[in-house]
Model the fold of this input.
Amino acid sequence: MLMYMSNIRSETPSTPLHSVSVAGIVVREDGRVLTIKRADNGTWEPPGGVLELAEAPEDGVRREVFEETGFKVQVDRLTGVYKNTSRGIVALVFRCHVEGGHEQLSDESAAVEWLTPDEVTGRMAEVYAVRVTDALLDGAPRVRAHDGRKFARSLSRH
Done:
């Protein structure tokens, strides 16, 4: 059951505020995954960002992937929900495939590369690498919480 939480604080001063982000795990036919090197901090991550208020999650994924990489994608399925407990961010992660476009950099991406799963785990921080490896698995979406660096617990059914 999903519950709606208002961002209006006047009702209950203790109501937590969360932001929602989306990310696309874009997988090529050869199994490589689309990644970006962020321009602001140099870390490798799947393309993604903050979901706009009136935007559907799938639309946000398509927008963010296109803005950061130049590729147009089709969203296949939700693969994980990740809560950063220290920053109040809930990330919805979707597996996708390319429908068109071509590689291009943006203000947010200093590099765009197709990495193997092993290269992903070698280059990305754990909280991002796990999102990729979860998206490569079959089955129900994974639900995980982390503090920004390490996972606190896993609620997923394996």
